[in-house]
Amino acid sequence: MATMKDIATRLGVSLSTVSKGLNGGQDISDSLRQTILDTAVEVGYINRKAKKQDTRSVAVFIENMEYEKADQFGYDIVLGFQQAAYREKWGVTIIPADHTLQKKHKYDAYMLQGKYSAAFFMGFSLDDPWMNQLADTSIPTVLLDNFIPINPKVSSIGTDSEEGIDMAIDHLARLGHEKIAFLNGSAGSTISNQRMLAYLNSMARHHLPIDTSMAVYGYFVAEAAKYHVPGFLDQGATAILCGNDLIASGVIQCCNDLGYSVPGDISVIGFDDIPLAANLRPALTTIAQNRNELGQCAYYTLHAMIHNVSLSKNLLRPNLILRDSTAIAKPRLVVRRSNDKDTVDNVNPELYSQFAKQQLLK
Amino acid sequence: MATMKDIATRLGVSLSTVSKGLNGGQDISDSLRQTILDTAVEVGYINRKAKKQDTRSVAVFIENMEYEKADQFGYDIVLGFQQAAYREKWGVTIIPADHTLQKKHKYDAYMLQGKYSAAFFMGFSLDDPWMNQLADTSIPTVLLDNFIPINPKVSSIGTDSEEGIDMAIDHLARLGHEKIAFLNGSAGSTISNQRMLAYLNSMARHHLPIDTSMAVYGYFVAEAAKYHVPGFLDQGATAILCGNDLIASGVIQCCNDLGYSVPGDISVIGFDDIPLAANLRPALTTIAQNRNELGQCAYYTLHAMIHNVSLSKNLLRPNLILRDSTAIAKPRLVVRRSNDKDTVDNVNPELYSQFAKQQLLK
Prior knowledge:
2 copies of one chain form a homodimer.
Chain A: H1 4-11, H2 15-23, H3 30-43, H4 48-51, E1 57-62, H5 75-87, E2 91-96, H6 99-104, H7 107-113, E3 118-122, H8 129-133, E4 141-144, E5 154-159, H9 161-174, E6 180-186, H10 190-205, E7 215-218, H11 224-234, E8 239-242, H12 245-257, E9 267-272, H13 276-279, E10 285-288, H14 291-306, E11 311-316, E12 319-321, H15 349-361
Parallel strand pairs in A: 1-2, 1-3, 3-4, 4-5, 5-11, 6-7, 6-8, 8-9, 9-10
Antiparallel strand pairs in A: 10-12
Helix pairs in contact in A: 1-2, 1-3, 2-3, 3-7, 5-14, 9-10, 11-12
């Protein structure tokens, strides 16, 4: 294990200069401090405080995710992480980490200077400056909803999208829906790609028709709905699964604007179960991520990684929360352009009456 | 929380009878003991000893997996689990659980009677009697290489097959291999299905030709090779990826018997890195599962689940261990049946000389 002396020898400076560089002393230049930190990382120096288990300190870096109020997505994740960490007497520091911070400091050097022994990243995307540096960091690091290949020191956590989407499609199929559209979040995000694959797999597993024009990427905002919902309705969709609850709120609004009722004409399902979901009209059926558990999971994953267990991917169970935005599929007359062969589509009165009967018998 | 008194009231027996039933007392009948245990499970009784964290006791059930000697697959997994558990003062009991045991006892009742607060299952398959009962158990349970949907009390651990197979295909592609066959383990196992999907995805990602007759299920034994290797060779395979190291040992033998040298003519890659792998001639390049870490991961997963974090899937990083069974792809003249249109296949001298040059420059 490298010591402060190794750093001093390598740079030809005194031990006290190295100590100032590592511990935030005042009377050395910023560039020398940076050189000392970079060298410390290079030789594999580990701060004594970070080494001692009973005073372990971890950093939570947050980028592009709201977390300060109880109704924001990140709030419960941070809370869950803190609860689990405090139970084992770890110190937690919350650090907003925008591009400016990430460009100013190298990741390993920042961690060393702050005496953190591990970190949890929330809300980052693959184009954040620090993400490239994770390919060869030696600091145990857990990412929410992102994935870095190969490096055994970096692990991912998230909610099992495959199971969540399968539960949603299963619920819709039982209600007699066949033409189920999927308005996903932004293209290029790890999580969106997983969810698209999950949707296609689940539709196939349920022997439902897959029409690629009914499975599209949008953005993680309500406004995404108006660009895609009219097309879905034209093609006879009776249900729309959404990449998150905000998109779902836009889809409900858009259906209403076009004269369709939710869930009377169209069923809508969201993803996440943010506090907004229960307050929509109709209240939103959604695939819930347990955010407190996500935070706790991040802690337990770091805990294992500090003991040299090289985790790769860790997924939590989702829950399908049934509210008022889904109902039995209503047969729809879809009148298409007259040069189409099929002018009437998706009418299956037999199936409809069968489901209606089951519903009445409950 | 239900108490012993609740069980006594429900059954109309005395408290001391209930206590005998739960704690293995002698002078009650087997059928009454079973009724008491079943009722205890039904009312949600949790044994006081199992509730107290500092005396927690966990069961490791092993079915159809060798683990008693250091060179057997399960040995290091059990060891890793015990090491992690003892670090936090948990007691570990190893229990061989064949079908007889599983048929004799219900899972929840067995756990209650043994005062175990959690369990780790190794070597089970989906047709084991206890697997069905896991759909609604309330006891934190972790499965190696199997998956139970929905139930938040049951979680899976394993090695990330997708990443491991991608590393192997990547290694072969860099050596100039294009026709890469995959002799998988048994059909119907969760892990085999994941690996087949991973192979197909990785071949596609590397823009390599996918021929479904080159991607087949066999069995997890060396003998599987002789049924499939001749076909692979006839079709011009220059590399064979295998579902485990035993299959790979059979593949090497089979290639030799047919007059092909490994790795001169055919490259072979295994999966697992059991001790046998390094002792084969040639020593086997293989996708390693770190079995000690798998055991530790099982413990950390149970630890999180006992704190009500509902984990679903947890994967460890694999390692590609490079030994002597892989080499630069050798152009092969494949003479097929004369009524085939292509009589010569897979000859790419340009690529070959390019790789040969790179190799010489090293």
